[in-house]
Protein: DUF19 domain-containing protein
Amino acid sequence: MINIITYILLAIVCFGYCHKSRPKRHFSSEEYRINTPSCDVVCEGQWKSEFHANFHKIYDTDYFEIPLDTAIVKNRASLKMFCSSTIQKYTCLRKECRILRTPWSAEKHICIGHFDNFDRNINCLSLTDRYVQKECSDVCNSIRIEISQAEISRMAEMEFSRQEKSEFIEQNKHCNFIACHQLCHEYIINKVCIDSAVSARSVVKSYYDSYLEREYTALNKDDQDELYSSFCRRVTPGQDENLYTANMTRYNNLTLDRMKNDIRSAFSILD
Ligand SMILES: *[C@@H]1O[C@H](CO)[C@@H](O)[C@H](O)[C@H]1NC(C)=O
Ligand SMILES: *[C@@H]1O[C@H](CO)[C@@H](O)[C@H](O)[C@H]1NC(C)=O
Structure:
């Protein structure tokens, strides 16, 4: 069992790193029988290796879903290159693996669900790229993240295990980081895009909304949705910040206000 897992891991790493310059690779059925990795792992590996060939970066370590990666927002050519290989990945999953239903993914959202919106707003988005990668990352990596006394008490009342507590805290941090990047990106759009700001903001908002919905769905699927903090619920569409802990609106308002202030002061140079 260990051997099979090791082999699969090596195969993934190899698909990620070994075929640097091969533009497209068609897998014959012969190769399926030789390769132990399952079909979807092969489609995924091919996609990552194309990412490496196209962007000279390693997907697993150099590509970020939050904030929107440079590969997506740098310019139209970059977006098209990323999306054409993403579409190939999903074609591979459908045709070669007969996987018709795939879960939400950032790249599927961008390249399949909302490609036209990203494409239409690429000029504005590309103006935001340098600020998003540098200043937004600086601010959002250093925001102060706290958990309210009310939720600390609730965790004690509910007798959360040490692990549950740490998952709660990590998830809450993650939600703060995501919300910060969303606010920051929207803030930059308002500063640097004149005519297209409304439409570009809605592209960014729908990406972050879907991202957060997926965060919630993943916890909910494992029946762990009590580990989703009030702040996480506040920023996730369709969730109620006061579901498990009452009267959290003011606390969350303050958290968001503080975040907005941090963002504003980081960009005072743009005013
Ligand atoms: C929530 O706030 C209201 C109004 O301030 C108060 O009456 C109520 O007791 C609070 N609920 C809890 C659980 O703290
Ligand atoms: C929280 O902020 C919203 C506006 O963003 C405001 O309408 C609401 O009254 C605030 N609530 C509290 C309890 O501070």
